[in-house]
Amino acid sequence: MPERTPETNVIDYRAAEQLLAANDPRGAVKLLDALIAVHPESTSARLMRARAFFMAAQLRAAELEFQIVLEREPANAFAHFALARTLQRANRADEAKRHFRLAAALDPKPEYVEAAGFDGEGAAGFDEES
Q1: Where among 59, 85, 107 does a domain terminate?
Q2: Co-location of 2 and 54 in the same domain
Q3: Does residue 8 form part of some domain?
Q4: CB–CB of 29/56 below 8 Å?
Q5: Within 10 Å of residue 84's Cβ, how many Cβ atoms?
Q6: Mean pLDDT for the chain?
Q7: Cβ–Cβ < 8 Å for 73, 102
Q8: Segment 36-60, tens digit of pLDDT
Q9: Are 54 and 83 in the same domain?
Q10: Is 1 part of any domain?
Q11: Structural domain contains residue 28
Q12: Residues of the signal sequence (predicted)?
């Protein structure tokens, strides 16, 4: 295999973005695996690989990658939101709720706020009748 160069890494990263946009997450993972092998510290590559795993329904792998991103960037609202979606998809709603709320607290985007339940109805989780 030829030696990787910074240009090769950028080309693979951009190609992986295109593969995700074309709904080919497995192809994206292959490119990102090689990139991450050389640059394991690349949070952006790991975040994209986590998204690709999620799209490919490889939920455990997606969860692990999102957790690595959050270890490095605990204030990454998107990573919290995406991890929450991953946990939700894996039928782990209680764990997902925590990350939805963290995402909304870090970045009050409407989709994050709505997913967290901070949209006015039961914002504190007390919408049951007393």
Answers
A1: 59
A2: yes
A3: yes
A4: yes
A5: 26
A6: 90
A7: no
A8: 999 999 999 999 999 999 999 999 9
A9: no
A10: yes
A11: yes
A12: none
Tell which residue, 61, 68, 115, has the closest CA to residue 90: 61
Domain count for the chain: 2
What is the span of the domain harbouring residue 87? 74-119
Q: Which of 29, 35, 47 is nearest to 7 (CA)?
A: 35
Q: Which residue has the tokens 């295999």?
A: 1
Alpha-carbon distance of 10 to 74, in angstroms, equals: 25
Give, in order, the Cα–Cα distances in Å from 36 to each of 31, 82, 112, 129: 9, 20, 29, 50
Residues 49 and 17 in one domain: yes
pTM for the predicted model, two decimal places: 0.85
How is residue 80 written in tokens? 């919290």
Calpha distance 31→107 (Å, rounded): 30
Quickly state the pLDDT bin for 119 (edges 50, 70, 90): low
